[in-house]
Amino acid sequence: MNYPDLIKARYSVRDYSDAQVEEEKLRMVLEAGRVSPTATNAQPQRVYVMKSKEAIDKIRSLTKMAFNAPIVLMIGCDMDVAWKSPFTGDSIAETDAAIVTTQMMLQAADIGLGTCWVGYFDPAEVAEAFSIPKNVKLYALLPMGYPAEGNVPSPRHEDRLPLEATVTEL
Fold first, then answer.
1. Distance between CA atoms of residues 38 and 83, nearest Å
2. CB 136 within 8 A of CB 79
3. Nearest alpha carbon to residue 147 among 17, 11, 9, 35
4. N or C: which end of the chain has fewer CB within 10 A?
5. CA 170 to CA 168: how far, in whole Å?
6. pLDDT at 43 over 90
């Protein structure tokens, strides 16, 4: 599938089959995150892979949004490493985390896996439960696996504003 078709076809999967994700495919997704661009190439992303029964059970006890995925990736950034703007002092970590998550999400779709970008979780509670270092701020969960039989995009999937509503030429 070409890229324009891939980005239009990819949708949030909220029901996964029991099929396990092959290690090679997991590595491809993680590699897409590893090579993602980050501000000043600081590479502050920290990706935690939850696939053991214990880890999956724990994340499911903390948020319903892990669904029944066989793997859940947790994406954070090391705030000690993330670039900070000299103009505002703001960290760009959230942007870096978004880029990394997007690239992994699209790589997963390209190889037949489904994902759902999840922000509905308590980062402090999850960080404590998984003993995440204090300098790592969590931004997203990415449940991942093969979509269950009959899984279809949300009815809102194709609801998009016209280009003119979101783009302004200067």
1. 9
2. yes
3. 17
4. C
5. 6
6. yes
pTM over 0.90: yes
Supply φ then ψ for residue 119, to 5 degrees.
-115, 0
Burial of 163 (0-12, 13-18, 19+ CB in 10 A): exposed
3-state secondary structure of 46: strand
pLDDT for 101-128, tens place per residue? 999 999 999 999 999 999 999 999 999 9
pLDDT at residue 1, as a whole number = 86
CB 93 within 8 A of CB 77: yes
- CA-based Rg of the chain, rounded to a whole angstrom? 17
Tokens of 108: 């997963």
* Bridge partners, 21 (sequence order): none
- Show the DSSP H helices in the chain as ranges: 3-9, 23-34, 53-62, 93-110, 123-129, 163-166
Per-residue pLDDT band at 61 (split at 50, 70, 90) = very high
d(CA 61, CA 22): 25
d(CA 137, CA 46): 9
